[in-house]
Structures are given as structure tokens and as C-alpha cells.
Amino acid sequence: LKRMADALSLNEWSVRSEYQKTVRRTERQAAGRQQESTADSKKICQDDCDFLAAIMSIEPFRAKAAEVLEKVELPQGPVVEALRKVLAGAGPETVHEFESEEARSLYTAAANQPLPETERAEKLVQKRLARFLRDGLVEESARIQEAIRQADSAQNREQVMELLAQKMSIDRKIQELGAA
């Protein structure tokens, strides 16, 4: 550092100070990247784990979840993928059947954790299933809205009226779920 200061015609103290700042900044950046990669691998939500653990362990909850899956098509995601595997009759080989690593991690974490207290598990399952049902209905409503737009542009009034009735019915269900 002394030679660099002499070559640049700078005070040795200034060069040393800047060098130390650079070293500290580099160390902080490396630590930040390491924390980010650790955080990525631990993105499993405790509520998701508790929800799946309750579905795995308690038959009435499993039956309610199966009923919701029959009513609406749920959007893809790790929780839904893991839920489908649980409802399909998960076994030891199930861990190798997941499409996403996130769903596999979630399933494994849920299978290896203790069951949450019954009251909390019941509330969590009810809320999560209501949310799944609501999300599925919202997607279905959006699809029908698009079909209405297409039927309207084709000037098919009869089909528009039919689709509007379906959409109103779905929107009422969504409002009922929101009020519950």
C-alpha cells in the first residue's frame, strides 16, 4: 500500500483507508449473497406446512380438500401440487414424483413435522380451502368474461346472456366466500 501511495502521489493513510473500505464492502456483499441463497432454500411457509400436515393426518380435512378440488380447478403452485399428491394417496415413493423442488420440499417438511394443535389446524384448513375455492372461482369468472367478450364480438346475443348468467352465479359465490 505504501508503494501504491508513493506511485500515485497520495497520502499512505488515504490509500489504506480506501483499501479497508473496499475489503469491508466486498465481505458484506459476499455475506449478502450467501444469505440470499440460504433464504431461497428456506422459502417454506409454516402455514403451508401446517396445512399439509393437517390434511395428511386428519381424514375429515382430507375429505374437505378433495371436495374443493372437485368443485374448481386450482391454480398451479407448490401447495396445490403437494396437496394433490397427498390426496392421491401418498407413499414413501411420492417424494420422487414431484415436478417442482419447492413442492417436494414442502411435502417433506409437512410430513416430518408434528401436527399443529387441532383448533389452529381446523381454522387453517378452512381458511386455506376457502381461499383455494375463491381463487378457482375468480379464474373461472375471468374465463367466462373472456368468452362473453368473444360472443359479444361475434354478436351471439343468446350465448352472451347465457354466459352472463353463469358469471353472475360465480360472482355471487365469490362474494359469499368473501363474506364468510
Describe the structure.
This protein has helices at residues 2-8, 12-41, 46-57, 59-71, 78-87, 101-111, 118-153, 157-179. It is mostly helical and 180 residues long. α1 crosses α2 and α3 crosses α7. The radius of gyration is 27 Å and the shape is elongated. The model is unreliable at 37-41 (pLDDT under 50).
Contiguous helical run count: 8
Strand content: under 5%
Contiguous uncertain segments of 5+ residues = 37-41
Helix content: over 70%
Number of strands: 0
Mean pLDDT: 82
The arrangement of helices and strands along the chain is HHHHHHHH
Biggest beta sheet attributes: none
From the N-terminal CA to the C-terminal CA, the straight-line distance is 70 Å
The dominant shape is: elongated
Content-based structural category: mainly alpha
CA radius of gyration is: 27 Å
What's the short version?
The protein is mainly α.
Give keywords.
180 residues; mainly alpha
Task: Indicate the topology.
Elements: H1 2-8, H2 12-41, H3 46-57, H4 59-71, H5 78-87, H6 101-111, H7 118-153, H8 157-179
Helix pairs in contact: 1-2, 3-4, 3-5, 3-6, 3-7, 4-5, 4-7, 5-6, 7-8
